[in-house]
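Model it.
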Amino acid sequence: MRVLLSAERVVDDLRSYFGIGLPPGVAAFTGSWFEHLAGGGDRPEVADRFAAEDLVAVQTLSVTVPAPVAVDILEGRLGARLSGLLHAIPRDIDMVDADALVVADGSPADQAWSLLCEQKGVNWVIAGKVLARKRPRLLPVYDRVVRCAVGRPPSFWLALHAALREDDGALYRQLLELRQAAGLPETVGALRVCDVAVWMNHRALGHACP
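Modeled.
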């Protein structure tokens, strides 16, 4: 991971994705709205429930929650079950500072992910992005491009948690340094810096990711 993040193009990739210093007429990636749309999915008044803007934010990452599932999340039993699980997932902590149990198999976060994956038309990518919207500091965006770049550990959450904490947090510090070098606001967390940097670099290399 640290090697991927040391590529010469990383800072430029981050600036391009988030629209920093782009010439007139050149737009940022729609994903730059993911964590910021409507003030963010983890703001206190909506942190433990899903709002319509959360599902729109997920669409900025090129996935869509099927309409029946979206309605159930917003107004049905599924939403109530997810809200109960969200209430048990810490909101104000970064993954690097969290205990591994918070992202381990069987944790409330894992239960919420599994519950989403049980819904028709919701795969592991969509489920992960939905939860990353609600807990952007704790739960990462993880899709096929990132998986192609970093491999398929038994648990990506636990693997990333361990990577962030090893060598006295060297990877975490590197991510914060990249954020500063790219001129990104602090509202873009370390996990999102990691996701975007890896995604942009691997995408640019032209890999075909199943």
